[in-house]
Amino acid sequence: MKETVSQMRQVEEIMEKKCITGHIYDIQGYSVHDGPGIRTTVYTKGCPLRCLWCHSPESQTFTDELSYMPLRCVGIDKCGLCLKACPEEAITEAEPEESLQNPGELITKVRIDRERCTNCLACAKACPAKSLMPSGYDITVEEALRRVLLDKPFFGEDGGITISGGEPLSQFDFTYELARRSKEEGITVCLDTTGYCDGELIDRIIPVTDLFLYDIKEMDSRKSEHFTGVKNELILENAVRIARGGGRLQIRIPTIPKLNGDLENIRRTAEFVRTLGDAVDLVQVLPYHRMGIPKYERIARKYPLPNIDPPSDEYMEERLQIFRELDIPVQLH
Fold first, then answer.
1. pLDDT, mean over the chain
2. Chain-centre distance of CA 144, in angstroms?
3. How many CA atoms lie within 13 Å of 91's alpha carbon, on the beta-carbon side?
4. Considering only the top CATH level, what class is 14-62+136-332?
5. DSSP per residue over 136-148, as a string?
6. What letters, b where the CB count within 10 A reaches 16 and e where it falls short, cover 234-266?
7. How confident is the model over 224-269, as pLDDT tens digits?
């Protein structure tokens, strides 16, 4: 009888692990910017930070927002299902505009009254063209792993899975189990993290993570809170924790002119990175870009940095040189 109970418990534990669900907003194959080699990146939803330069605003909230891509809308003459589906009458006809597909033809799309919209997402369920979509969806570890395994033949020696976000450690059970199962399948695991989490989670995730893609955004804690919404002490402590715990680090430094891109901050960052020793494989300095602006428009959010321009090559080279002078491996990302 004891053996039967033990066996039943083992089955229950297996079923529990199979049913672990995460909330993500995308899975991207053939990703070459999220760690070494060719990778498949699973983007989890929800982040405790609110970086002013965030280029994935749809990743920030843990709940879904309604995303609208007018380019996909086929027009109310051919569809109009969203108008009928919305219980708040928050979707109405927009002004007719010229069709991009058929120049000279007018098409009437829709507009969304965001103040009336309650994010019930009934319109997204009704939209066959996927012009209206939720900003995330649920997926089990098993489903995510099956998707990753489709790409395994392309990973080669260096590639694998990257679990990104949002902040993947905010959904620890999903992230841990997906990492663990991936390693069981012989797939290397990168974890793209802000480092803003309980240190105990860092200790638990190190054994199933081959490389941490680790953001260090600002060394001054007061400025960090202003730029990202959180102080930086925990982030810096966890970087040290990874280094001392045998983890590997690839440090990433988003560099935004007029904010955290000043030479003093870059120099202090370089000096901190040097204290992490051989645990750091590489530092990547990321120049600010504005490619995320359309994503803000899709979810009707105001872009926080309308007056910041991307830095020049000379600006970035001056910052790269600081790391070279300290013999820290660095590249422009």
1. 94
2. 16
3. 28
4. alpha beta
5. -EEEEHHHHHHHH
6. bbbebbebbbeeebbbbbbbbbbbebbbbeebb
7. 999 999 999 999 999 999 999 999 999 999 999 999 999 999 999 9
List residues bridging with 59 in a β-sheet. Answer: none
- pLDDT for the residue numbered 289: 96
**Distance, C-alpha 308 to centroid of its chain:** 22
Could you give the residue range(s) of every CATH 3.30.70.3270 domain in the chain? 67-134
Integer Cα distance of 185 and 191 in angstroms? 17
Contact 211, 35 (CB under 8 A): yes
Query: Measured at the alpha carbon of residue 137, what is the angle toward residues 115 and 183, in degrees to the nearest 5?
Result: 145
CATH topology of domain 67-134: Alpha-Beta Plaits (3.30.70)
Q: What CA–CA distance (Å, rounded) separates 23 from 162?
A: 16
Query: 73-93 b/e with 16+ CB inside 10 Å = b?
Result: bbbbeebbebbebbeeebbee
Handedness of CA 298, 171, 237, 182 (dihedral sign): negative
CATH code 3.20.20.70 region(s) in the chain:
14-62+136-332
The sheet that has 21-31: what strands, in order across it? 137-140, 21-31, 39-44, 160-164, 188-193, 211-215, 249-255, 280-287, 330-332
State the first-to-last Cα distance of the chain, in angstroms, to the nearest integer: 60
Reference 327, options 260, 289, 269, 274; nearest CA is 274
Q: Which two tokens stand for residue 101?
A: 């597909």
Tokens 């530092």 appear where?
Answer: 283
pTM flag (> 0.70): yes
